Amino acid sequence: MPPLNTGNSFMMRILLALAAVLSLSLPVSAQEAPVQALLQQHRDIILESSRKTIEPAIAALAGSGLEPAQAVLRAWENKEMWLRSSDGRFYRGESAGGKVQTLYDFDSGTKLGDEPESALQQLKPNSGIRALLRAALVQFQLNDPNPERRRAALQTIQRDGDASHLEPLRASIETETDPAIKALKERTEALLSIRHGENEARRVEAIEALAGDIALDVRAALNPLLATRLKAAPGAVPEGENVARQLKPGSTALSRDDAYRLLAESGLAKPHVPAADRLAALAANIADGRVGGELVARLTDPAARDRAYAALAAEGKAPPTVTDAEFDAALDGHVFYEVYAEPSRAVTTAAVAAMSAINRNVGMMQALDLGLDALSLASIFFLAAIGLAITFGVMGVINMAHGEFIMMGAYTGYVVQQFIPNYTVSILVALPLAFAVTFAAGVAMERLVIRWLYDRPLETLLATFGISIALQQIAKNIFGTQARPLTAPAWLDGAWVLNDVVGISYIRIAIFILALIFLALFLFIMKKTRLGLETRAVTQNARMASSMGINPDRVNMLTFGLGSGIAGIAGVAIGLFAKVTSELGQDYIVQSFMTVVVGGVGNIWGALAGATMIGFFQKGVEWMNPSNTLAAQTYMIIFIIIFIQFRPRGIIALKGRAAGD
Amino acid sequence: MKRESFFARNPSVLVFIAILALFTLGVTLASEAFGAGLISTSFIKTLGKTLCLCLIAVAMDLVWGFAGILSLGHFAFFGLGGYMVGMWLMYERTRDIVVASMANAPIPPTPAEIDAAIGTQIFGVVGSSEFPAIWFFSGSLVMQLLLVLLVPGLLALIFGWLAFRSRVTGVYLSILTQAMTLALALYLFQNDSGLRGNNGLSGLQNLPGVTASQAVVSVWFLWASALALGLGYLLAAWVVSGKFGSVIRGIRDDEARVRFLGYSVEGYKLFIFTLTALIAGIAGALYYPQAGIINPAEVAPIASIYLAVWVAIGGRGRLYGAVIGAAFVSLVSSWFTGGQVPSVNLGVYTINWVEWWQVILGLSFVLVTLFAPKGIGGLFDLAQGRLVPNRHGADYGPDQGALMEREGRE
């Protein structure tokens, strides 16, 4: 294509010519570089360095559209701008140590060499000028071509913005092209307007725009507006105060003593004499075993003490105390009220309304969050109890060592992680391995102990408890008493965060999913497989089942092994978020039994219902008394004891012949 | 028909009391305070504590071996008894200290100031200084001793009433009692429970107003424990000896049948449950002043299960079996865990008995359950040649299988 070719060579020639011109003009342009020229133009007011007159210089720099202008402003603000006396030009200086500055040109950024500070003059902007400079800088960042820097600037403003940011922020909204950042800018502008808006109307408008927004930053912007201070005034509330509410001394919000203390602190009433001072005054005035006319030995009586002190005060040896009459009169003579720190009534009214909308939304979100927490707790209980639902629920064998099987599963996960450093792979290996280990342990226990005790449940309880003690101590001997880490793979770290209130960690979601998988697995095995059929047959009538060709011994062994194996897998899951110690199982055993008993023995849906109920109940109690999870467990157990009064067979009770007994 | 006297029908009671008296006398004569000084004060305390454990084992045997209620919560009552007496001991002792330290002040303190100082002393560790309402009677020994009976008794009465009226039996009841003691332990673990959270009550070995040395006090407590054990044993033996005893054994063997015979099964069970809770409370009240400290870990479910272990190893269904089991297991246990047993070096591995004792205990418990359901007490049958026909280990027990075998034989 010849025409294009010629075009190309033509362009080439122009570029070459331009380059030649540029390289020639370089020494010249150092003389007339645009930023330096600008600085020289405003040289007088820059050197004057006064808050009142400086604005044209900053505005010229900020509005120049020149790239180095930002660097100039930053250097100026950081007191790194120097004036060289020899040529009267501005440079950026970097301390080279020993009162020597390395100078850089603003326009080209090139290093110009060292210069002693005696030959330079440093520009020291005062705090007022620095604030102007910062505001000008924000404008640059807000219009920075890099979106990440724009976001960073917005974050800075949200963290500690002030009134000077408002103008550049508003100006930058118009030109913003990225819709996400534009939204963020508008939001930041509203947040900033709440506190620094130029007039009441704008502030109220901004507050109303954000009403019901549950984000933390909105609440952080509104809370300072609604901060109150307790005040007292003689007679009536003075005019012009933005009163939040009036308080009556002696109410729950303000005790009479506190009210009086406030009066004394604000100088409206005579202060109380502290007990320690009174004691010191009494001790200082003892003479002949008496003080204030009272025998010292009698001062164990508070009334005698008061009399002695009153006598001292009457003699002028101690400051007089406040009498009851004075106390009452002072309280009656004053009003007590809370005032908002924010003087504008319209703003506080809007903020109160916005806050109540926010609180309502936050409450709803908290309920949702609590529901998620409860669900997660329920799935943990379910996971811990599902093995028990097989051994205890279906087979009727009470296995106190079930908790130790959970512990064995967790330790299996720990040991696997010692050999396989990749956490994802190690968990995938640990799950089947934990099943295998606890399956084997369960089968061994069934063969050696439990099958001899099938018709003696209380003795099964005791024998399995003996095994539980032994297993716990063996684990302690092998792994020590300190907690061992079972680390979750990195993709399970972190949390799924819906908003500032609702969030749930991925591990808990994984456990929830695991619980669902186990529910499905259990149902599949029990309803669809040969083993499940045989298990149900043996459970309902062992002799009949054996006459139908089922080997009850084998079925019992496998079922028990299955229940134990599931406990092992639960152990791996629990170990991911709880600390792995030899007492891990103990923490879950009673709750697991409760889950099965409350839900109804012999029914997986019962265990599910039991776990859900216990999980939600416990979280509910924790919500009412958030500081105290121990109390929540106490109340939960009491609740279960009472619950069993009304449904002794659990939530889902088997009916008819399947119920046994 | 002339009824024989109680002791004539129960010669073992007299034998037991004679042995207990001889033991107490022997220990007293060998003690540092009153005799030759062969036994150290700390070992006398261990013996005294063991007697208290024997007493609660008797209670456990009564409720489990005779009435068939496998309670896994009796240490809750034991602990509550200890807490009740501990409150008085701690209050009075702190009061003595506070009053002594305030006596030097120029102005004598008012009662309110003393109370505030005691409160700060006792509750400082849990960040409080005020007396909770439950300490209302802590200044009065008589009231606190009454509470030793009232608190465990009321708890047992309420819990038992709730559990028995809804016909919770067997393993369900066991789990429920375990839950009860767990709930109590968790409650006490809180700092705002008013009982100093996991710090518990301490310094209980010092009797307020008593200047005698610990050597003397320990013997006093040994006497008190021995007396309590003797009386408790007598009471238990009397309760199980007559018609009442037959009824509760009947309940153990077949609850439904006893109910159909017209007995109020729930009433009997409730009585036994509450009575044993009272005995447990007294045992606790004697135990903890000798131990010196009580904390919520003492009422953790594990303690009550060990109680069942003692009774099972000693042989349930006979009172002296429970005593032997508690004494034997707790003394052997403290011997092993005390580090006095030399380690066994197997070349590749050294068996440290402090670490392995629990394993042995657990496994021996399994073995006893499987092969010797009568426990150590069964040895006495061998000695007396009173061997009952071999029931394949399935003798008395509250379950249906055992009963059918017995019926077939009779």
UniProtKB/TrEMBL annotation, chain A:
* Principal location: membrane
Any Pfam family hit: BPD_transp_2
Per the record, its GO cellular-component terms are:
plasma membrane
Family listed: Belongs to the binding-protein-dependent transport system permease family. LivHM subfamily.
Task: Tell me what topology the record assigns in the membrane.
Answer: Multi-pass membrane protein
Record's keyword annotation contains RNA-binding: no
Subcellular localization, per the record?
Answer: Cell membrane
Gene Ontology BP annotations? amino acid transport
Signal peptide coordinates: 1-30
Keyword list (alphabetical) reads: Amino-acid transport, Cell membrane, Membrane, Signal, Transmembrane, Transmembrane helix, Transport
Give yes or no: UniProt keyword Signal.
yes
Which PANTHER family does the protein's record reference?
Answer: ABC TRANSPORTER PERMEASE PROTEIN, BRANCHED-CHAIN AMINO ACID TRANSPORT SYSTEM PERMEASE PROTEIN LIVH
Give the protein name, as stated in the record.
Answer: Branched-chain amino acid ABC transporter permease
Q: Name one GO molecular function term.
A: transmembrane transporter activity
Q: Mind telling me which residue stretches traverse the membrane in this protein?
A: 374-398, 419-445, 506-526, 557-577, 589-617, 629-646
TrEMBL record, chain B:
Q: GO terms for CC?
A: plasma membrane
**Transmembrane segment boundaries:** 74-91, 141-164, 171-189, 220-240, 267-287, 293-312, 319-336, 356-376
Cellular compartments annotated: Cell membrane
What GO molecular function terms would the record report? branched-chain amino acid transmembrane transporter activity
- Membrane topology (UniProt): Multi-pass membrane protein
Q: Name one Pfam family in it.
A: BPD_transp_2
Q: Which UniProt keywords apply?
A: Cell membrane, Membrane, Transmembrane, Transmembrane helix
Organism superkingdom: Bacteria
Asked if Transmembrane helix is a keyword of the record, the answer is yes
* Protein name, UniProt field: Urea ABC transporter permease subunit UrtC
This protein's species is Seohaeicola zhoushanensis
Lineage, broadest ranks:
Bacteria, Pseudomonadati, Pseudomonadota, Alphaproteobacteria, Rhodobacterales
